[in-house]
Each structure stands twice: as C-alpha cells, then as structure tokens.
Amino acid sequence: MKILVVGANGQVGKHLVNFIQKKENMEARAMIRKEEQASYFKDLGAEVAVADLEDEIEKIAKAAEGVDAIVFTAGSGPKTGKDKTLMVDLDGAVKTIEAAKQANVKRYVMVSSFDTSREAIQSAPDAFAPYIVAKHYADEWLRASDLDYTIVHPGGLTNNPGKNQVQLGEKVDRGEIPREDVARVIIAALENNATIGKAFKAVEGNAFVEDAIKSI
C-alpha cells in the first residue's frame, strides 16, 4: 500500500512516514511544501512530492497519482491567524479530498481535532473557535464524499514517547496522546477496513493500538 502523507513535515507526519517505511506492506510518499524539506524523507527511503495546500487541486492530485491512500495530517499551527486556519485546515483539506477523487484514490484518513461538534464550536475560546470550525466543516465535507474515509479525533497532542497503548471510541473522556501513538493509530486504521466510514476519538489508554482498533 502506497500512502500519500499530507503534512509530512509536521510532527505527526514525520512519525507516520517513519513507521510506514518500516512496514513490509507499506511505503510512503511525503507531501512537503519545500524541496529543502526532502532530505529527511529521502533518507528514510520514502518518495517525495512537493505541493502546497494553497496550490490548485490539480497539483495536489498530481502528488496523489498512483497511491492507494491519503492521510491528511496537515495543520496551520497555533501561531497562525484565522486566514491560515481557513486556507490550510479547511480549504486545504477540502482540496485534498477533491484531489483524491481526481486521482482515483478511494482510501482517506483525516486527522481532525478532538471534538468538532457544533457544541464544541459554541463553547470554544475565541482564539480556538476558528480552528474547530475549520475542522468541523472539513470533516463534514469528507463524510459527504464517496471516499472510504476514517476520521481520527486525537486528544491533546504531546511529544512524550509513545507507549502503543490507547483508548479509542466515539465517546471518550478528554485526555492527551503522544503524536507517535497517533501515527500508530493511523497505520492500524489503514490496515483494518472495518474502520472505513468511522470516526473515533483517541487518547492515552491501556489497550494496545491494534487491539483497540478492532473494537471500533
């Protein structure tokens, strides 16, 4: 399975490409914004595609040609304004979904935010609300597509070493999760077709990732 990792140069993305390249049945294509970011991924033996989420859909579709799945791990980051949140977390996600259709890629995994419900939007602090809004509508666009999607809603992201132990479910208490373990959850979701059409939250827990995925 060849997987296009969108947002590969991000923290979750780097873990994900690294894990994919260690799998015998998977290979990664890292989508990055700048050629100077390529060496990290080439050293792992991964393919590289240079494309920006603010580019036209056709360029993103070209980056997706020949892959079996797309994983959207991109994010505008906490230090950007509402404009970048709109352009990356919403429009970038929507363009990637449309690019998947153009490139005939059916499998799509979205890394979303922990709670993208209407209630979460209404209760979010002013500075965080635009991000939740962007993720809410990106998730809705994906659900309305004909793609074989999975939506992962991770808890608060940390750089703690992953333990390969999580709690997954439609309703779980808010908590944290290492970025490394988010990457493991993504891979497990790609390997299990029972996750198609599902959305679930992911936080630290006591179940090994592969076992937790089976309960989704």
UniProtKB/TrEMBL annotation:
Domain NAD(P)-binding residues, every copy: 7-192
Pfam families: NAD_binding_10
Name recorded for this polypeptide: Oxidoreductase ylbE
Source organism: Gracilibacillus boraciitolerans JCM 21714
